[in-house]
Design goal:
This protein is mainly alpha-helical. The protein is built from 15 helices and 9 strands. Helix 3 packs parallel to helix 15, helix 6 runs parallel beside helix 8 and helix 9 packs antiparallel against helix 10.
């Protein structure tokens, strides 16, 4: 009998040149180990201990994240669990067998059995984690990621190696084959580019600042940074925060490939949105999806509690990943952290279960701000 049970042995508080050839076998690709998760997600240690509350309250909130035997499981939930607990979170397959969440998503047969659909498939250009079709969120796509290259981006943030094995019935591959397929099909008009750019910023070799898709289109971090700056934040989900994550990844890890004018523009872009967030933080410590265009701390929209949870937790995580000199004042963190913890505590178990993914982001922010480290 199969059942699901999360086993978080240790809670990780690590949170936030490939040129394409015509066939995968021709690609001259060197495995590049990504930056460790601590370097990617948490910059200044001074951010620990910013949440003015007891450890017991935080631990009680974390307990809500554990899967129950009848909890639904999907690719999206696996990604959010991995983001929250890191590589030490497992799922029981049988009473004596467990599987790492990353390994589960990298195994087509096991993921099909547990999720209903294979989470990874072979393509002409390598291997791919399928994405939920636009306007068909979930609805029978439990094995698919919710955003283009979301799995690749989360894996990069977790420090998963490009040599990670991908098990398909046809043959065995590696995570680098997913990166190869992503680059082959990359274009600026795709549904979302933020996760792709986040992944490329960490996974492309250190001396490479460009890539080419299967149509022969050449992209650089310079050109993509310019594209990010031209697009409004309202065009992407989660209040445009994923675009901010991508911009920060380029600024922190690929700045050497930017001309000085673009580097200054990118820094100004990040600074501008930090200042806007501080200005628009509502009296209770939260933000809603209109934060980036609010003229004051009073929103003109009636945002739901869930919307505010999503935006507030995403902004906190983005702040913590910024260089220390660009981060907001500590009062911004404290106010948001107190609101998030209280909101999680007030959520009924059924509500938390139904909206686990948004609430998992809140828990990540709470754990990081509290400074709890069980490792």
């Amino acid at each position: 009998m199969k059942f699901w049970c999360l086993v978080p042995i240790v809670v990780l508080l690590a949170f936030a040149g490939l040129v394409f050839f015509s066939t995968p076998s021709q690609a001259n690709f060197t495995i590049h180990e990504p930056v460790s998760s601590h370097e990617i997600r948490l910059d200044p240690p001074r951010r620990f201990g910013l949440l003015p509350t007891s450890i017991d309250r935080v631990l009680a909130a974390i307990e809500k994240a554990k899967l129950k035997q009848d909890s639904p499981i999907s690719c999206s939930r696996c990604l959010h669990l991995a983001h929250l607990f890191g590589r030490v979170a497992n799922i029981y397959l049988e009473s004596t067998e467990t599987i790492d969440l990353v390994d589960l998503l990298c195994d087509s047969k096991k993921s099909e059995i547990l999720l209903g659909d294979p989470s990874v498939v072979k393509t002409r250009y390598g291997v791919r984690f399928p994405t939920v079709p636009q306007y068909n969120y979930r609805n029978g796509f439990e094995g698919a990621e919710s955003h283009r290259d979301q799995v690749l981006g989360v894996f990069a943030a977790l420090g998963v190696s490009l040599s990670q094995k991908i098990n398909l019935e046809e043959a065995d591959f590696e995570l680098k084959d997913v990166l190869r397929d992503s680059i082959a099909n990359f274009h600026l008009g795709q549904q979302e580019i933020s996760w792709s750019i986040l992944a490329y910023s960490h996974y492309l070799p250190d001396d490479v600042g460009h890539w080419e898709n299967r149509y022969g289109e050449l992209f650089t971090f310079e050109s993509v940074a310019g594209h990010l700056l031209q697009q409004g934040l309202g065009k992407e989900c989660c209040g445009g925060t994923h675009r901010l994550f991508a911009a920060n990844a380029i600024y922190k890890y690929r700045a050497r490939f930017l001309e000085k004018p673009m580097l200054r523009q990118l820094q100004a872009f990040l600074e501008q949105h930090v200042k806007q967030a501080v200005k628009s933080q509502m009296p209770d410590g939260s933000w809603d999806s209109t934060w980036w265009k609010m003229a004051s701390k009073i929103s003109k929209t009636k945002a739901s509690k869930l919307e505010k949870v999503v935006i507030t937790s995403h902004l906190i995580e983005w702040f913590m990943g910024l260089p220390a000199d660009l981060q907001p004042p500590e009062s911004t963190y404290k106010s948001a952290g107190v609101w998030l913890l209280q909101t999680v505590e007030e959520a009924e178990d059924a509500e938390f279960e139904e909206y686990f993914c948004p609430y998992s982001h809140a828990l990540f922010a709470i754990m990081t701000l509290s400074g709890i480290d069980f490792s």
